[in-house]
Amino acid sequence: MSWEEALAAKAAHPGAVPVQGGTDVMVEINFDVRRPEALLDLNPVRELAEWDVAEDGRLRVGAGVTYTRLIEELGDRLPGLAQAARTVGSPQIRNRGTIGGNLGAASPAGDGHPPLLAAGAEIEVESAERGVRMIPAAEFFTGVKRNALRGDELIRAFWIAPASGPQYFSKIGTRNAMVIAVCSFAIALHPERRRVGTGLGSAAPTPRRATAAEEFLAAELDWERRRPLDPAVARRFGELVSAAASPIDDVRGTADYRRHALAVMARRTLTWAWNDYAPGRKVS
Length: 284
Ligand SMILES: Cc1cc2nc3c(=O)[nH]c(=O)nc-3n(C[C@H](O)[C@H](O)[C@H](O)COP(=O)(O)OP(=O)(O)OC[C@H]3O[C@@H](n4cnc5c(N)ncnc54)[C@H](O)[C@@H]3O)c2cc1C
Prior knowledge:
binds flavin-adenine dinucleotide; 5-stranded antiparallel β-sheet; Enolase-like, domain 1; globular; Uridine Diphospho-n-acetylenolpyruvylglucosamine Reductase, domain 3; alpha+beta; FAD binding; single chain
């Protein structure tokens, strides 16, 4: 099946549920969470499993590229996303699961989302009738497990710039593997623009950025002389990240714990990132 045929099928059957790796869809069907009228298997669409470098230098990564391939083939260029990918499920899940499926499911806890937000990625979606739409990651998530896709649209790819500075992802779970995040955090430093990117996971109805924290930090960091990180700046950054969250109490953790953990993860990942950017001047 070609991409055009997939788009035509989705237009003709807007209720059809797309399946890529199936690691979310099949679980929902097995547990009777949903009974789709039809499934649209995207695995035969070869374009979705490809990635390339676009004219503007960004990577265009097909929605069907698995976590395993992302780690192996793009880990050096997308270190934040690759770090997150390494925490997803198990080798079996990473061999099947995709960022496209993560975006489709749009869980507040999806591990791919914080690094996409921190990197300022864009999601390419398409419909047979209206063509391509580019949606900034920060506008893609519209509610708990809801995204900006319309009934006749499919996710084609995500566009993301190769890292221009250090990137880190941190996730808290009740164990080290096969676990949904209690909360998570991603940071990306963009030294060429003197900007900071952030992404919070499992900390609000949708994954989101901490924009006040980004702006504060971008203004405080000594990009030029790369002086060591001021602990007071790291602390304030942590507070602002925590303040950007609107977490809930649930079986995985309390809202208070999540707020606290986000501040810790923000300070910690910032310290790692700044130590990479300003080597030889490490603070711990
Ligand atoms: C045991 C287990 C452990 C897991 N651990 C983690 C974890 O640690 N972290 C994490 O984030 N997730 C985890 N997951 C959830 C899941 O693996 C991820 O969300 C994964 O990214 C889904 O990708 P997929 O290709 O399998 O998606 P699928 O199940 O095929 O699809 C998921 C959703 O996206 C839609 N979709 C897929 N492709 C497209 C497309 N091209 N256009 C439009 N819609 C599309 C589908 O219709 C569906 O709604 C786990 C799941 C299992 C079963």
